[in-house]
Batch of 4 targets.
Target 1
Amino acid sequence: MIDNWQVVPGVVQQGHQIASGWANYSPYPKGSIAMQMPYFQALGLDLSALFNGTLNISIYPATFVMQHPTYTFREVHWTAAHPPETFSFSPCQLRFQSLQYEGFVYYPHPETKQRHFQNSAILEILAPPIAGIGYRDRVELALNPTEILIVNPQES
């Protein structure tokens, strides 16, 4: 249990829709998350209660740096379509319309990805299905400050 969450405001943004498989051009019709979950489970992280897609939360103008995540899985070979990737996960809470949802920041390491990059102001969140949430909705993220560094430009 984390005693001192760092709460950051954010806005739901449309992503590439590859994680969920909703993109018309997705090479993964079931979505990349559904394909990756069995690998993560075999490595000790059960994400089966969470939606098979990510919520892309913009914390702009702030950015983030993944520092010491709870889980890092190196060289996960989850598809034959490209080389293995490294993934990190940090527990988080997403707060929307006075409700709180437990989930994870999902961080595919950009140095091991070939495409579908995110900018450093977007956190990808794995969460349970959330009724009524949509693009441009305002949310709060509660993050573990020992795992994720939030960089505010006004503090730089």
Target 2
Amino acid sequence: MTAPTLFGLSHDCLRRILGFLNPPSALELCVAYGRPEMMDWFYEDGGVYTYDGTDHFLPTRHIKHLRYTDVSPNVDELAAYTGLHTLDLSDSKITNVDALVACTSLHLLDLGRSRVTNVDALAACTSLHTLVLTGTGVTNVDALASSTSLHILDLSRSRVTNVDALAACTSLHTLFLCSTYMTNVDALAACTSLHTLYLNKTEVTNVDTLAASTSFHTLHLHSTMVTNVDVLAACTSLHSLDLSGTEVTNVDALAACTSLHTLILHMTNVTNVDALAACTSLHILILHMTKVTNVDALAACTSLHTLSLSTRVTNVDALVACTSLHTLDLYGTAVTNVDALVACTSLHTLNLHSTMVTNVDALAACTSLHSLDLSGTEVTNVDALVACTSLRKLNLHSTRVTNVDALAASTSLRKLNLYWTRVANVDALAACTRLHKLNLQSTGVTNVDALAASTSLRTLDLRSTKVTNVDALAACTSLRTLYLHSTKVTNVDTLAACTSLLILR
């Protein structure tokens, strides 16, 4: 048997604490300082010392990473931590960081959601690499002109209105200005290393300055005042672009962005996406609530994985070339035919809610289908779904479906909505033993005996049905919610086995 040691520490660790070997780590200092109960936490937290106000600071020697929790720190003590590399003051009540003028080795500083309003002291922190000021009252960042090594800066939800000083931060590659009062970002023309910029919910009107950032990778302009993105033709490395909620009408310039992976045009005035034929690497495209009517150009986007279309689209035949398609949202479109999807054998999620589709036989080829929404369509037959054995979620609400026998093959089905359909028989569901949620409201169902096999059932809605007997549900011991409004069920004594059941009449 191994001989016990103090606090369960190895002899080597103890010798370090006693100073016989190398200087102790922050973890060992913590133990030596009389807080052995924190040892496991340290291992899990990567050796960052957290000061929670219950002790004095650890000795400044060797402390490189420091974090506060739920305390009002005495910032004057920070001046002694000249070797500090990482400091986390997020969500603290700190208001003043003048003491950091002594922390010239500081590499990462998080002041997010603190009460700090002035960061002039950071002019001395010339090694600063990452700075988080999100949710603070900071209005001026001129001091950062000396932080020429700054790589990542988060000013989102601060009160900053001017970032001219950042022209000196030529190493800056990631900048967050979301929800600020920014109107102009021309100074960023000097930040030639900039590759990620978030301007969401600002009043910026012009991004022409980005023409100098040829290595630009990610640009978010959601809900800005930008109307023209022609300058992006120079950003040939652009990977992700969010223009949602802007007044942009033309995206022809994107033909030059052949590396484009993600494009969000939701709630724009874009009418034409032919230029995207050149974006053969496009993976995600959101066109919901645009004025686009034709998507034939997408036939060239064979890597397309996720697609959401405008309500004005009527034809999706071009998608026959998009064999990698995983998620397709056609909600509210005027599409009438989805036969092209026979080629999309990897399709996982399909939303046809409130479309004009009447036939879904092509879906027999989509054997990987997990989620299908046909609600509000004129579909009458779902026999093709017998091939979709991986189906987990199916919504047939307000369709003309009368028969669901094909679902006997969908043994993985978890959620099924038959509300306001003409289905009268659900015996096939006896095979759906993994069913969690079933809505039979306002159907013609009179008998639910088959559900005795659905032992995983948690929610069942029988409102406005002609069901009179629910004895079979006694086997559904996981049942938590049962809706019986407007039914003729009078006896629920047999459901005593469902100990967590809430019956709503």
Target 3
Amino acid sequence: MRRGLAIGAALSGLGWNVTLANTASAEIALGDGAGDIGTLSGLGSGERGTGGRGSDGLDPASLRPNFDACVIDSYKATPELRRALAPYLAIDDYYLPLPGAIAVLNPAPGADAAQYQIDEKLLGPRYALLGGDVLLARESCEEPEFPPRRVYVWLGAAGTTELAGIVKSTLAGLLPAAEVIFPPAHANPIQPQAGPAETQVSFNGGARYIAMADMVVCAGGVTALEAACIGRPTVALALAENQLANVAGLAGEGTLVAATDSTLGQVVSELLSDREKFLGLGSRGRKLVDGLGAERAAEAIGRIFSEPAGGSPHLD
């Protein structure tokens, strides 16, 4: 949903009337930012949505006059909702190909243009959809400390209590004096015998806590791009299929190191033994991801739909 918020805000800045689909994680992702870009609409999943009509009651024809662009989190949207929006789709999500798209957006480094049989391709970190809070954090943060005194952990929707426990115990053993910042979604009730102090923070404002931290452990999706932009050394565990290409691409660019639950201890230990490598991850990340991807994507969408014909374009 953070990608949707970012591109929605950028489109709104260009004068588009943006409606946000209320899917899955909308409540935690929107927070106080909902009022900044317009109406929060009940277009979400009937099964997982947090408000409004479910997808079973969705009438695509009635939606058409209501907005210029529909930004949905297709990874969380039900098949029914995706089918309902398919006739109006213009920009395709990089993970779930939807029928009718005339463009694709994939921020993963090294995204292969040849795999998309489509004319308009917005590929690579230049189009990473990051919010204004990330840019603000990037501008205000200092260089990370080594060894790290604070570690920010965000495992995403695919994170489990078991994995959170592995991360906590690993950090407790390798960085016993460090503070570990956990959003409450991953507040593991099973505490390590001894280890880092833990601070629970809300999901909203994650960029601020990334900037406060000296190192990030994450699942390798949007948070990995945010950490790169802010310049934080990152260890990524790809927990979902749609994160694999992003983690591989960022690792190839030297902005993070990849790990699994079984290799996490070894990977973190090796990283903590090499100050130059540790700090290099952050500096290369800042060069690779400048935080202006949402604006570039919005401008590209504006060019594609400079004269929308027969109705409003839709963004997935």
Target 4
Amino acid sequence: MMYDSSKPRPLAVAISPVAWRVAIAVLVMAGCTRSRVAGEIPNATAVELAPGVVSNGHRFMVALTPDGTALYTVERRFLVPGGPPSLVILESRRTATGAWGLPDTASFSGTWQDIDPAISPDGRRLWFNSARPAEGRDSSRSDFDIWYVDREANGWGTPRRLPAPVNTPGSDFFATAASSGALYYTAAQDVPVRRSWILRSMPLSGDRWSAPETLAVVNAPPENASNPFIAPDESWLVFGSARAGGHGDSDLYISERRGANWSTPRNLGPAVNTPLSEFAPSVSPDGKTLFFTRMRRGADRNAVEERLFLIPFASVRGGG
């Protein structure tokens, strides 16, 4: 689907800070409706995020700053009919009235293919993925590596690429960090078969990182796992998977950490998951709201429409 720039676009959604908190409270209260999917799971209604302003049918992923004043997402721009999209990270800021303003291109994006912004729990670092050139990277590659920008006095600083062993000759993407600095991310390969899995790495001294470790239960073959969003205290992990027993295409799952082990992943249920593709999960810094993207694919399996949704996290998380 092509974006029609001739159609009028609203300037903002006027929601005061008080009204925003009331709206979230109402959504949480709506979670009293229950449904049984793989056991009893509380459900609520997912609503689109600022339709026409933030969610416009061609955007995915949501990353909020801890103070709630800025939001980052990715826009899939079709510059040539039938051609590949351009992927750009956008920044939207709250106005004095509490509205989300129309997003602009983020300061570190707009030239190369960039996706999957995620903000560290302290708000001082923004992780993202990029296909931009870098020293030591094969210039023929078109897949993604993990990059970051640090917060400086006047905005985000210079983009920096993570070294090996986090970034590899394969595709490494969708990185989110815990308060400990632990980085959870997706690694993928295309040969001999398409396979993706979630890894964890810890920062060491200097610019070094520990050898990645796999999450055995989450990555249990033959299932694929990707798009990990980790809790600040690493107590839970929300991720995407098209594994058997789901609702259709890719669904969102949760695994709870119990000591050194992770629980068997549990589908978040029909309040979130549908026959369409749900992916790119994130949770607000206060832990109350789950954001995700719902994608409708075309006959070629490529995205035709992508919309951003939110739902009270407690209503779908369950007891773990």
